[in-house]
Amino acid sequence: MIAFVRPIKFEEVDAAGIVFFGHYLGFAHEAMEHFFAGLERGYPHLIVKRRVGLPAVKVNMSFRAPARYGDVLRIETSTAHLGNRSATLVYRMLREEGSVLVATVEHTIVTTNLDVMASCPMPDDVRSILAAHLSVEATSS
Predict the structure, then answer these.
(1) EC number(s) for this protein (predicted)?
(2) What residues form DSSP beta bridges with 19?
(3) How far is it, in rounded angstroms, from Cα 58 to Cα 94?
(4) Residue 13 gets which letter from DSSP?
(5) How many CB atoms lie within 10 A of CB 118?
(6) Contact present, 91 and 76 (Cβ < 8 Å)
(7) Architecture of domain 2-140
(8) Per-residue pLDDT tens for 26-54?
(9) What's the DSSP call for residue 55?
(10) Where are the beta strands (DSSP E) in the chain?
């Protein structure tokens, strides 16, 4: 598991005073970029120079508690499933104060050659990071 901490910004809150649900996908993507920061030259180099993408093919979200402006989210990212060309990441989003679970996002990605927009073999360094953070639940099933 790799943790990423981010504050809730004013523009992310809706008229009800809570984070608008659509922003949680953006939070998940920020956490994914942080998750892959250990790649040589980072996640941007994977996309821009190596031309390997990790587009979403499936996303499931569930919500447990609200997050508000001024809260700080701790996003814990782990790998729930690791296949040959795909993986499922799980993001547990907790209010840092009190460790209240706010939301869980399950995000299935497929390794893609961005020049031809087709699935491709997963690079070893990407697989290594995913494998290093495979959740206990995933390894026992």
Answers:
(1) 3.1.2.-
(2) 13
(3) 22
(4) B
(5) 9
(6) yes
(7) Roll (3.10)
(8) 999 999 999 999 999 999 999 999 999 99
(9) -
(10) 2-7, 52-53, 56-63, 72-82, 86-95, 100-110, 112-113, 118-119
Half-sphere exposure of 48 (CA within 13 A, CB side): 6
The residue type at 10: F
Look up the pTM and report it.
0.93
Report the DSSP pairing between strands 112-113 and 118-119: antiparallel
pLDDT band at residue 138 using 50, 70 and 90 as cut-offs: low
Please list the residues that pair with 58 across neighbouring strands: 108
Cα–Cα distance measured from residue 31 to residue 22, given in angstroms and rounded to the nearest whole number? 15
What ranges in the chain are assigned the alpha helix state H?
A: 23-35, 42-48, 124-132, 136-140
Residue 107 corresponds to which tokens in the numbers above?
Answer: 């995000």
Average pLDDT for 93-108: 94
Which amino acid makes up residue 54? Answer: L
